[in-house]
Amino acid sequence: MSGNLPVDAARISEDIDALAAITEPGRPWTRRVFSPLFLEGRAYLKRRMEEAELETRIDSAGNLIGKRKGTEDRPGVIMLGSHSDTVPDGGRFDGIAGVVAALELARALKDRGVTLAHDLEIVDFLAEEVSPFGVSCIGSRGMTGQLPGAWLDRVNDGEVLSAALDGVGGDATRVMDQKRRDISAFLELHIEQGPVLENEKLAVGLVTAISGVTRFEVVIEGRADHAGTTPMTGRADALVAAARLVQDIREVGLQLSATPGHFAATVGEFRMLPNAANVVPSHVRLLIDARAELRPDIETFATWLSEAVAKLNDGSGISAAPPVRVSDNPPFPCDKGLLDVLEGAANKIGARHRFMASGAGHDAAWIARVAPAAMVFVPSRGGRSHCADEYTEIAEIALGTAVLYEAVIEIDNRLLDQEIADGTHTG
Question: CB atoms < 10 A from the CB of 357, how many?
Answer without folding.
Answer: 20
